[in-house]
Give the backbone structure.
Amino acid sequence: VNADALPRIAIDAMGGDHAPIEIVAGTILANRDGLGRMTLVGDRNRIEPLLVGPGSQDIEIVHTDEIVAMDAHASYAVRNADGTSLGEAVERVRSGAADACVSAGNSGAFLAIALIRLGRVAGIARPAIAAVIPGVRGPVVLLDAGANVDCRPEWLVQFALMGSAYARAALGVAEPRVGIISVGEERSKGNSQSIAAAELLDLAPVRFIGNVEGKDLFADHADVVVTDGFIGNVMLKLAEGAGSYFRSSLRETIEGGSLLEKLGALLLRPAFTKLQKKLSYDTYGGAPLLGLRGNCIVAHGRSNRTAIRNAIAAAAAEARADLIAEIAASVERVPA
Amino acid sequence: VNADALPRIAIDAMGGDHAPIEIVAGTILANRDGLGRMTLVGDRNRIEPLLVGPGSQDIEIVHTDEIVAMDAHASYAVRNADGTSLGEAVERVRSGAADACVSAGNSGAFLAIALIRLGRVAGIARPAIAAVIPGVRGPVVLLDAGANVDCRPEWLVQFALMGSAYARAALGVAEPRVGIISVGEERSKGNSQSIAAAELLDLAPVRFIGNVEGKDLFADHADVVVTDGFIGNVMLKLAEGAGSYFRSSLRETIEGGSLLEKLGALLLRPAFTKLQKKLSYDTYGGAPLLGLRGNCIVAHGRSNRTAIRNAIAAAAAEARADLIAEIAASVERVPA
C-alpha cells in the first residue's frame, strides 16, 4: 500500500442480516468520511438503487450473481466461492485489486475462503479471529475468538504477536500489554495449556504482563488478551449475554416498578442510550482475521450501517499501517 | 440423616473477609429461621460476645485456636488442618457429629482438606465446585467452577450427574436440563473435549439437551451447565466482571449527565437496589463441593450475613435430601 494513496476496500454487499441496505449505507458513510476507495461486490440491480445521496459518488460496483448462504458449510463455500460476492471480495485482495476486504456474511466461510485464497503469513501456524471489545479505558483485543477450538501453546504465542501488531497498527496502542487468560494472577495458576504458553510468552517479543482473569477483561489490565478459540468464543458470547441479561433485567424491574421509578427511567433514557453506544460492539465495527496474507475484517452478521462504516475504517487502518508486514516482522523476532 | 431431625451444620466462624462478625450474624439468622442445629467452630473468645439477640440461643461453640490463612497453600493447610477452625468443621462431618459444613475461608484449602478427610463418592474421579448463578428464570448450576483445570471427557459426565443431583436435591428442579458449554448449538461444534463429552452424555442418566453457548448461560436454556474447571472459572469471573463493568459504566454516565438524568437516577434507586439483589450471588449463598463423602459448602470470601445464612440453607437442603446417596445412585446408573 502506498501510504499517500487511499486504501482500496472491497465490501461484500450481500453478506449479513441487513444486506444489502445497511452494507451499502455503511459504505456510503465510509466513503463520505474519506476512509478509502470503495468497491461494493454483489448484485448490481440491488446495489445501484441504494447508491444515492451525499457520499455515494465514486463508489465502484463489481457485479456478482451468487451469494454464500449464511448456513453454508465452510468446505462447500470454498468449493463454490467463484462468482459469489464473498468469494470475489476476497479474490480482489488476492489479485491486488483491493488492499482489504470486509464481509458481514458467513464468517466460517469467510475464514475458509480467505485461508485458501490468500494463504498464511510465513511462520504463522493458524490464523485467528480477533474480537475488539469496548473496555473501561479503550479497546481490548481478545483472540482467538473462535477460529481454532483446539490449540497448541505455541499458537497462543502467535496470537499474542498478531494481536499486538493489530493493536499498534489499527488501534494506535504504542506498546500493547499482553495477558493470557487464566484462573488466578499467580504464575502457578492455570491449565497445562496456559502455563506452557505463559512460559513461551516470557521469551516472545511482546510486552507480556502475565495471567489475567475473566473479571479483568474489561478492566484495563491488558490491551491484548490471548486464549484458545474455544474459550475466547465462549467468553465473547458470555460477555454479550451478560450485557443483554443486565439490560433486560433492568427493564423488567422498571416495568414492575412504581410510577416514580418509571419517570426516573424516562429521565435516564439519554444516559442509557449513551451507555449502550459506549458498550456496543458497533464502535469497533468488526473482527480482523489475523495471520493471512491479506487484510480481512469480519463484520457482525447483525451489523447496521455504523458497524459497517467502522469495519471499513478498521480495514483501512490495517491496510495503511501495513499490518501484514508488521506481523511478518514480529514472527521473525521469535526465538527459535 | 433422619428426615425428621434438623440437620446439624458446622460453620467455620473464622474464615472469610468479614469473619467472625458476619459469619456469626449469618448463623444467627439461619438458626432463627429454623434451618438446623448450628455449631460455630472457632475462637470462643471472639464468637461468644457476638452470640446475642434473637436467634442466638442454642448455638453451640466448638473452640479452636488456629486459623487457616487465606493465602495458605493447600498442601500446607492439609498437613496443618488439626486444631484449625476449617479443619475441625470438616472433621465434624467426617466423624458424624455434623451433617454438613460451611466455610467462607481459603477455598483451595477447604477442597483439599475435605478431599483428604472425607474421600470421594465411589465412581467419582474428581470432586467439583458448583457455582449457583442467578439466571433469568431461576438458579443455574455451573460446574466445574475451578477445582479441575485439566479434565477428561468422562469427568464432565460425572459433573453432569453431580450437578443434576444437586439441582434436584437442593434447588427443587424435578428434571434438570443439562447442557455442555460449546461454541455453537450444532452437535458438530466444539473442541475435542466437549465433543467427546457430549457423546458420553447422550448415554448418561441425565436429561442432556446438547450444547449451550456463553450467551445462553443466564437464558433458561439449561439448569445445569458443565465444562472443565478452567473454563468454568473464567466464565464465572467474567460474568462477575461484566456485571460490575455495566454498573460502573452506568454510574459514570449518570455522574457526567444532566441534572434531569441525575434526578432520574435518584428516582430509579429502588429499582437498582432490587436488581442488584436479584443478580447477587448472595441469593444462593455458596458453592457446593460435589463428589465428596460429606456435604461441604464453600461460601464466597466476601460473604455478608445474608450470604452465610443462605449458604447454611444450601448445606441444610443438601443434608436433608441426602445428596451424597443421590450422587452415589446416579453414578451406578452410568453404562460401563
